[in-house]
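Exercise 4. Each item below gives a protein and its sequence. For each, produce the structure-token representation.

Item: Antibiotic biosynthesis monooxygenase (Shimia aestuarii).
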Amino acid sequence: MPKISKDSSLQTVITTFEMTPGTCQDLMDALTDAYETFISKQPGFIAAGLHVNDAQTRIANYSQWERREDFQAMLRTDEMRERNRKINLLCRSFEPVMYDVVAAFN
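Answer:
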């Protein structure tokens, strides 16, 4: 479960994917497989969530890592580089962005 807290030292990454409704499920399957079989087993991984909009034209991914370097190391692996090439074919664009939590509300 992601932990959203201003006082946290965790690295938060939000990635947005833009696609057509025709490729949404294929992309969701690829992302789910990536998390289940590879990403979640990488050092520093804490939690993630996948969200899809009702038009099936955008997927938002929220992930947390112990350190920024852990996320960067995962991206640099041969396996993730290959997965990202395939993911790129299923969407118009995707962009992972690292964020710091500045406020959280319950």
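Check: The domain at 11-99 is CATH 3.30.70.100 (Alpha-Beta Plaits).
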